[in-house]
Amino acid sequence: MKETLRILVENLVDEPNEVTITETINDNNIMYEVCTTSKDIGKVIGKEGKMAKSIRNIMKSIATKNHVKVTIEFVGK
User: pTM for the whole thing?
Assistant: First the structure.
């Protein structure tokens, strides 16, 4: 799942080498913290948060298939 998230985010930003994803696993919960540069965070979040919502929906559908819950937080450096 982490690699899928990485592919989604890296294809949106200008500086894909600056993307870092931290994964925290607790029982059936997985939390991802996606860090990008401050100029790229707007591209990841999108207008009115639509891009972030779409990324979360994709990841939640994958998580449901694997019987886990997923939370994604987007952070700018």
Answer: 0.90
